[in-house]
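Hi P.,

Sorry for the delay on this. The queue was packed all week, but I finally got your sequence through. Input first:
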Amino acid sequence: MAKRQLLFPALILLFAALVRLSHLDIKPPHFDEGINGWFCDQMSKTGYYAYDPTNYHGPLHFYVLFVSLKLFGRNLWALRLPVVLASLIAIFWIFLFRPFFSRTICYLAALGM
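Then the structure:
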């Protein structure tokens, strides 16, 4: 029975990963993605993130993007991958709310994301 209860969440996560990862670089970069890439380029030049209080993100976002770009190269796929992984983690977290909501609600919420 436990295996059957894990099957549907695993299928939802697999579906979510396929939807997010297929054609990840087909759309041109959005303005924010371009700026984030520029900040990462500046980090490559200076070696650190120069904090700017007028920017809406703290340094963690840029350091995660920086690591992704260093690991996978300077491309749009590497720039978007951390956000995809964060969204998959968010979907997984929905299933941790199972003690508080019904299984159906958790499945619908995960599918909605």
